[in-house]
Specification:
The protein has a single domain, classed as 2-Layer Sandwich (Translation Initiation Factor IF3), CATH 3.30.110. It has 103 residues and is an alpha+beta fold. The protein is built from two helices and four strands. The chain has a four-stranded mixed β-sheet with strand order 1-3-4-2. InterPro entries: UPF0145_dom_sf, UPF0145_YbjQ-like. Pfam families: YbjQ_1.
Amino acid sequence: MILVNTDYIAGQELEMLGLVKGSTIQSKNIGRDITQGFKTLVGGELGAYTDMMNDARALATKRMVGEAEHLGADAVVNVRYASAAVMQGAAEVMAYGTAVKFK
């Protein structure tokens, strides 16, 4: 499956199949929240949260690709990611784009 953040794929004529998306809501455990809270006192990257968001993006992408495959797509164009806090300590990550088939 080809994933691009452009609205075209060089050298390919595309047939649009429709919007596809994947999402997940992730949270860290309370122990990690406490240790990451201490990290904010001294500054620096919050590694546990970076890992959580990377895992969430990967899962959302996998789910989006699954929807695209179900439609018989060869690629997804205009891939975008969005995230939002849904409650304290939990974030939703969504991947979305347009499923296309090569003509």
